[in-house]
Amino acid sequence: MQTADQRRVWVIFSGLMLALLIASLDQTVVATALPTIVSDFGGLSQLSWIVTGYLLTSTVSTPLRTYPKTGGSVVEWRRTEQKFKGD
Hints:
Blueprint: H1 4-40, H2 47-66, H3 74-85
């Protein structure tokens, strides 16, 4: 039988694996669509700006996607973290 700590580790690990799966699927879709996106923005001269913009928006929005129940609210993250710690 698993202890509460082991269950928490499995829940956290499963969440991380799910987040990585979703991120890799996202990258696959963008990589497939990138030639079309680049041509819409004026060719290869704009490629670095398009990729940089995508990476920045992806990085900023990741915490919002990671915890959809609260919309990524920092306050809710801290409350959840305190629940896991038992504070």
